[in-house]
Amino acid sequence: MKTNRLDIFTSFIFLMILFFMGGFNFPNEGESQRKEEYVKFRIKNMGFNVDGEFSNFTKSVSYNKQNPEFSMFKGTISGASINTGIKKRDEHLRGEEYFHIEKFGQIAFESTSVKKTGVNEMKVTG
Fold it and tell me: Which of 1, 13, 17, 98 is the least crowded, having the fewest Cβ atoms under 10 Å away?
């Protein structure tokens, strides 16, 4: 099954949502890259759920609880650090058809707007 760039973009947006919405216990400023942190994802492929994670990433968060619209989220993920638990699948995902890590090694996100949409929900656009 061939995947187009729009499918990859949609998956990327889903990844970023999981990345940033893990909880509201954010540090005020600065970068974080600790061993127990990871970016998890779940996609549906041919009717099956595929779970995986990226282990190499950085993030910078400035969260303003009183005025979420002044918050900032920024992150970079190394596409090479993908791990679904199946080596052949990971190699395929790193290839040209998906992440093409030789040409696009980093997946980056920087917020351009943040809006509170519920009690523990935000819409982060970037």
Answer: 1
Q: What is the pTM of this model?
A: 0.65
DSSP string, the chain: ----HHHHHHHHHHHHHHHH-S-S---SSSEE--TT--EEEEEEETTEEEEEEE--EEEEEE--SS-GGG-EEEEEEEGGGEE-S-HHHHHHHHSTTTT-TTT--EEEEE-SEEEEEETTEEEEE-
| Tens digit of each residue's pLDDT (9 = 90 or more) over 95-114 | 999 889 999 999 888 999 99
User: What is the pLDDT at residue 22?
Assistant: 47
